[in-house]
């Protein structure tokens, strides 16, 4: 049976007291080029203009975003399931209409 302090002994055995010099760019190169520049640009003062993607939204879209943002995880999952079911039903309806169009020969190209 494990001792009550067994976990502490294991954790202390994993500790490393080695000092790493992170000042050298040769030892610690930027892993993703441009990240430092991006981070610096994010520190600029925030402007009052909305982001570009928000400028194209209508008030109805913004209300929908607010509504979805206020949902709990369970409610959001229900909403997603409802959308999946709706997409499935639309697919079935489209299949029926395409089959109907095929039988009525309205999808064939006119012969020249």
Automatic annotation (TrEMBL):
Gene Ontology cellular component annotations, sorted alphabetically: DRM complex
Domain of life: Eukaryota
BP GO terms, sorted: regulation of DNA-templated transcription
One family name in Pfam for this protein: LIN52
InterPro entries found in the cross-reference section: DREAM_LIN52
Record-stated family: Belongs to the lin-52 family.
Name of this chain's protein: Protein lin-52 homolog
């Amino acid at each position: 049976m494990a001792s009550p302090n067994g976990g502490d002994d294991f954790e202390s055995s994993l500790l490393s007291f080695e000092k790493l010099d992170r000042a050298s760019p040769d030892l610690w190169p930027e892993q993703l080029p441009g990240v430092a520049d991006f981070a610096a640009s994010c520190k600029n003062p925030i402007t009052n203009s909305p982001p570009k993607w928000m400028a194209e939204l209508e008030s109805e879209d913004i209300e929908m975003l607010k509504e979805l943002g206020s949902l709990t995880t369970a409610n959001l999952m229900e909403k997603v399931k409802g959308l999946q079911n709706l997409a499935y039903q639309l697919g079935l309806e489209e299949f029926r209409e395409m089959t109907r169009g095929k039988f009525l020969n309205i999808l064939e190209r006119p012969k020249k």
